Amino acid sequence: MSKSRTRTRKFLFQMLFARTFWEVNKLDLVESFFEWVFSSELDMEYADKLFDIIVEREQFLLTIIKRFASKFDISTMPKDVVFPIFIASSEMIFLDEEIPSSVSINEAIELAKIYGDKSSKKLVNAVLDNILAHIEEIKKEEFTNQDAGFSFFKEI
């Protein structure tokens, strides 16, 4: 049985969405969504790592999104836009494993198609293309948790 990153990204989106309402117990969430009857398993090591990166670096990621989607108010931006950007940009900026940027961006667009509306995929694509164009300078920035003045996640 192969581990599916595509399915794992969908699950990661759901974990991030759930985190906006309550503290997420990853094991309980896995058990509640899956009975392990699928043809592929989740890559939980990847999901745990990305989830922790996104939660820990949320303010930095929000700052980056605000920079590259300056026409939008981040506090009212739909989660179906923000979470795919969080996932793909975290893969591109923070993940040690080499995932081609095109894969990260395409997978984020697919998440936006599944969970969002027609405009979601366009916005996700535009923001991630801009992030990719400036990725080297972003990676050199201090990854401090600047206060973006807003959080998508419930305080725990």
What does this structure look like?
The protein has 156 residues and is an all-alpha fold. The chain has a single domain (2-140), classed as NusB-like (N-utilizing Substance Protein B Homolog, Chain A, Orthogonal Bundle), CATH 1.10.940. The protein contains eight helices and two strands. It has helices spanning 5-19, 26-33, 44-56, 58-68, 79-93, 101-115, 118-133, 135-140, and strands spanning 2-3, 40-41. It has a two-stranded parallel sheet with strand order 1-2. The protein is globular, with a radius of gyration of 15 Å. It starts with a strand and ends in a 16-residue tail after the last helix.
Secondary structure tally: strands? 2
Strand order in space, largest sheet: 1-2
Indicate how many domains the architecture comprises. Answer: 1
User: What spatial form do the alpha-carbon principal axes imply?
Assistant: globular
Main sheet summary:
2 strands, parallel
User: Count the helices. How many?
Assistant: 8
CATH fold call: N-utilizing Substance Protein B Homolog, Chain A
Low-confidence stretches: none
CATH architecture: Orthogonal Bundle
Report helical residue fraction. Answer: 55-70%
- Whole-number mean pLDDT: 83
The CATH superfamily is identified as NusB-like
* Helical/strand content category: mainly alpha
Percentage of β-strand residues: under 5%
